[in-house]
Amino acid sequence: MPTIVPYTYEKKEEKSVYFTSFVKGMKVLIATQKPFAKQAVDGIVEILEGAGHTVVRLEKYTESEQLLAAVADVDALIVRSDKVTAEVMAAAPNLKIVVRAGAGYDNVDCATAKERGIVVMNTPGQNSNAVAELALAMMIFMSRNCFTPGTGCEVKGKTLAIHAYGNVGRLVGLKGKALGMNVIAYDPFVADNAVFENDGVERVESIEELYRRADFLSLHIPATPQTKGSIGYQLVMSMPKGATLVNTARKEVIDEAGLCRALAEREDLKYVSDVAPDCNDDMCQSFGKRVFSTPKKMGAETAEANINAGLAAARQIVDYFATGCTKFQVNR
After folding, report:
1. Residue 261, Cβ neighbours under 10 Å: how many?
2. Residue 300 has what pLDDT?
3. What b-and-e string marks burial along 302-324, b requiring 16 or more CB atoms within 10 Å of the CB?
4. CA distances from 227 to 81, 133, 258 (A)
5. Within the chain, where are the H helices?
6. Interatomic CA distance for residues 78 and 57, integer angstroms
7. Is the pLDDT of residue 15 over 90?
8. pLDDT score for 275
9. Phi first, then psi: what are they for 81, rounded to 5°?
10. Could you tell me the domains of the chain?
11. 163 contacts 219 by C-beta, under 8 angstroms
12. Running DSSP on this structure, what letter comes out for residue 149?
């Protein structure tokens, strides 16, 4: 049985409204259709067991029923891209916290979790470098004709535009500057201009200006009701001659019909993505080397990001049960 020890938490603004005491002996499930690396799993187990919790694992599962059975008696859940639906939560009456090991969390039904009093967290920043490196690699890949014969171009001296200057976007900008690119960025949610100034990045005041000036546009906005389908015909058509749109965010933010229309009307434009669009086959057939998508989202698919995100998830669960810390909660 869990051991409950009275605890007083002073920083009320960071404390979960559902948290009342210091808790040990929680059961934590690592549920991963695509497992963490062994080093990550070993580290996760060490962190959680060292804090007095029990760890169980469900790896490489193929049926949703397996997950439903596994969550029946767990208090906490660590996932990667696994879907945590309302059905999963209904099957887990003891569930208190879900941590998505990664930045995006659209695989978790956050609204239902909030209704059920379940805290949902992500692990921002842990895979940022991996995604940023991939974004730059994609730019070079496209600028060199997908590594096929023919004259390409260099990225040095080109304008790199960053749409959303968060953890990943900022790293993309800094790496772009190291390659000699002129970097501009747009992010209305970053209040401090000094962030841009200290990085030597020009802040632009509108999305329209950002796209109008972008030789390479690196997209890092989340998929929200406001952003889904927001990148379409008008913005893409406004980009300079020979421009490339690079999407390492989510496919849902792209208006695919509008993008295809723009690519059809302008043979100089290119699109590269870390997740295949729904119309990928048609795009490849119609636009050839001007489009490329990875077969499966791989921005965070590095050993380092895998380990970092897993260990961060474990530490956040320990902190939550030890102090009620909800610093990385995404469903407030």
Report:
1. 15
2. 87
3. beebbbbbbbbbbbbbbbbbebb
4. 20, 24, 15
5. 38-50, 64-70, 86-90, 110-115, 128-143, 167-178, 193-199, 207-212, 233-237, 256-265, 280-287, 303-323
6. 10
7. no
8. 87
9. -100, 10
10. 3-126+303-323 (3.40.50.720), 128-293 (3.40.50.720)
11. yes
12. S
Please state the separation of Cα 14 from the chain's center in Å: 23
Whether the per-residue pLDDT at 293 is higher than 70: the answer is yes
Closest CA to 236 of 256, 252, 220: 256
CB 171 within 8 A of CB 180: no
Mean pLDDT of 266-281: 95
Q: What tokens were used for 11?
A: 């920083």
Closest CA to 116 of 83, 90, 88, 78: 90
Neighbouring C-beta atoms of residue 201, cutoff 10 Å: 22
> Per-residue pLDDT for 19 more than 60?
no
Residue at token pair 């049926």: 63
- Assign 50 to helix, strand or coil: helix
| Phi, psi angle pair for 245, to nearest 5° | -95, 125
Q: In what order do the strands lie in the sheet with 182-186?
A: 202-203, 182-186, 159-163, 216-219, 244-247, 270-273, 291-293
